[in-house]
Amino acid sequence: MTTQTKEAGAPSPAGEGSLLSVRDLHVSFKTEDGIVRAVDGLSFDVQRGRTLGIVGESGSGKSVTNLTVLGLHNPMFTTIEGEILLDGKELTTAREAELEKLRGNKVAMIFQDPLTALSPYYTVGRQIAEPYMKHNGASKRVAWDRAVEMLGKVGIPNPKERAKDYPHQFSGGMRQRAMIAMALICDPDLLIADEPTTALDVTVQAQILDLLKDLQQEFGSGIVFITHDLGVIADMADDIMVMYAGRAVERGTTDEVLRSPQHPYTWGLLNSMPRLDSDLGAPLAPIPGAPPSLLNPPSGCPFHPRCTFRDRVGGSRCVTERPLLAPDRASACHLTADQKRTIFVEEIKPRLG
Amino acid sequence: MLRFLVRRSLGAVVILFLLSIVTFLLFFGMPRDPALLICGKTCNPQSLANIHHVLGLDKSIPEQYAIFLHNLFLGSNGFAQGPCPAPCFGYSYHTNDQVWATLMDRLPTTVSLTLGGAFFFLLIGLGTGLMAAWKRGTLIDKSATAGSMVLGSMQIYFLGPLALAVLVYQTHWFSKPAYNEFTANPITWFTGLIIPWLVLSTIFAAQYTRMARSSMIEQLQEEHVRTARAKGMSRRYVFFRYAWRGSLIPIVTIFGIDLGSLLGGAIITEYTFGLPGLGQLAVQSVFFSDLPLLLGVMLFSAAMILLFNIIVDAAYAFIDPRVRLS
């Protein structure tokens, strides 16, 4: 493992050279019940040409973080603190007009459900061409040709004709390909994919993942890949950040996090994955308890109410003191490094088979 | 598209046919004898029977209905008042005028009132609704919503006389409402109808404001709208191209219904401002137990509503590519 890989995904003090660096991001929503702290002190970096996988349960703040990067939150109810730097440029304080120039151009997004994420009222070709016209000042005709070219590139057969179709005339997999074509038409530096394969069946899922990898090779974009599927992340990501209750609880390269995970929550995630080679009758092993309410998150370590290892820390540190996430390869847990290693090797790994 | 139009038109004809039967039967269920209204002071059984015979009321109901249908499609020369070409609804019991000619005579008033009113209530209603949705949650939004609520709960018979009293009789800013033919003088046509249009539109605009606002807000939360924002389209572009397109369906639906029923006669507005349209005619026909006129107005109004229903359904296909006709 080279030093370069080591640093990737781990925030250096100023995030120099990173494509995207998020520093101590706090996002909270005002709701009728109170303030929801959806993201609570999050820092991470994304490098050009690399993929950062963000894993976590629903409501762990994965999607919110990335909507915030593009400024797509509702400013009326949302408070944002911290820094989001894209190529060194601060985005949290950027004006709407500046953000508009970045969206779809330098930073593009792919959403989960391509049926609802594409407008039913316009042709696929037009929807793909729009950002190209907007950001490159291209004429309708040039943009259309480019859209057809992109459709071909993402593997839509007969793109010239299919561009004239409406999204409802496409299959699920084709719609997601069209979404990808739309995201990539302006050659973005950063691609944020928010569960892009969740709504697709498994064979199509594999095709889409391969497509994304190929296109990343070609365009050299950085990718933030959000998912709750560890299998997908193992395939896609160079680095992994595990999120829980709006915080990063573990971070490292994909190899490190999946081969020697250090955080009890990551153990729980790995443990709850069904395996093809396990006994058919073997029960699934879910993480006990439910994700915490972000209105009123638990004190100390947010995972402590569900953690089976908390009595090994000793005292009440888990309840009173929030464990911090050190830079680089790290996990936010009060267990000592030795404890983490022995627990994983002796108690968790055998169960993973 | 053609198949759709043919199929729906045939359906409409069937509905009109059924409606004419129902109207016919209900008319003969009315306790009032139209002959008595015509007969006057010197009425005796002899003259009453005579009138019955002249009006054809001495025949059985099915027979009368058959004659009605025959006259409607083929016309008739059997009327004492003169010939009656198809579509013949006969002659009015009350005025002795040919019903179809009366309808055509009143139609321009109703069409002028409807189209002008529709123009203003769309302009005011949708404009306010869109502005409220754009400025959602602000003071502008709240006052637009509250204002449309207040105006929408007003009644034409209250607002109409009020507007007349203040804007016409007191300040003399506007001329007295009247129908002048557009072809004769477009300016007097406009000045004569502007007050009825505005009063009509304040009542109708409120529902368009509410609907435009709520469906725009709903559309703006759609995922495809967020996608459009995420690819860098401006707020204005997304608002008018993406969200507006999705809001059109409910608006067009209500607009079709409103336009259809207004073309059948805006009874209260016509009475309030003394405009001789189809609405006045409808009330008259019931009041004088005037069967030919009643049938004429009923079927004409129903035909308008059906026509706009078909137009609305055809419009869906243009608005939403997922809708396929036929």
Summarize the structure.
The complex is a heterodimer of chains A (353) and B (326). Chain A is built from 14 helices and eleven strands. Chain A is α/β, with parallel strands linked by helices and 353 residues long.
What does this structure look like?
The complex is a heterodimer of chains A (353) and B (326). By secondary structure, chain A is α/β, with parallel strands linked by helices. Chain A has a domain at 261-277 and 289-352. In chain A, 36% of the residues lie in helices and 20% in strands. Chain A has 14 helices and eleven strands. In chain A, strand 1 (20-31) and strand 2 form a beta hairpin. In chain A, helix 5 crosses helix 6 (140-153). Chain B has two domains: 35-88, no CATH class; 100-319, MetI-like fold (Orthogonal Bundle). Chain B has helices at 2-29, 34-39, 45-55, 61-74, 99-134, 139-152, 156-170, 186-220, 223-230, 235-263, 267-273, 278-287, 291-319. In chain B, helix 1 (2-29) packs antiparallel against helix 13. The mean pLDDT of chain B is 89. Chains A and B meet through helix 3, helix 5 and helix 8 of A and helix 9 and helix 10 of B.
Please name the defining characteristics of this protein:
heterodimer; A: 353 residues; alpha/beta; seven-stranded mixed beta sheet; four-stranded antiparallel beta sheet; B: 326 residues; mainly alpha; 2 domains; globular; MetI-like_sf (chain B); transmembrane (chain B); cell membrane (chain B); ABC transporter permease (chain B); membrane (chain B)
For this structure, the quaternary state is heterodimer
The biggest chain-chain interface is: A-B, 31 and 23 residues
Shape of chain B: globular
DSSP strand count of chain B? 0
Order of helices and strands of chain A: HEEEHEEHEHHHHHEHEHEEHHHEH
- Largest sheet: number of strands, sense, barrel closure of chain B: none
- Distance between the first and last residues' Cα of chain B: 7 Å
Give helix and strand order of chain B, one letter per element, not per position: HHHHHHHHHHHHH
Kindly report the spatial arrangement of strands forming the biggest sheet of chain A.
6-7-8-3-9-10-11
The appropriate CATH architecture of the largest domain in chain B is Orthogonal Bundle
Q: Average pLDDT of chain A, to the nearest integer?
A: 86
Number of strands of chain A: 11
Family (chain A): Belongs to the ABC transporter superfamily.
Domain ABC transporter (chain A): 22-270
InterPro entries (chain A): AAA+_ATPase, ABC_Ni/Peptide_Import, ABC_transporter-like_ATP-bd, ABC_transporter-like_CS, Oligopep_ABC_C, P-loop_NTPase
GO molecular function (chain A): ATP binding; ATP hydrolysis activity
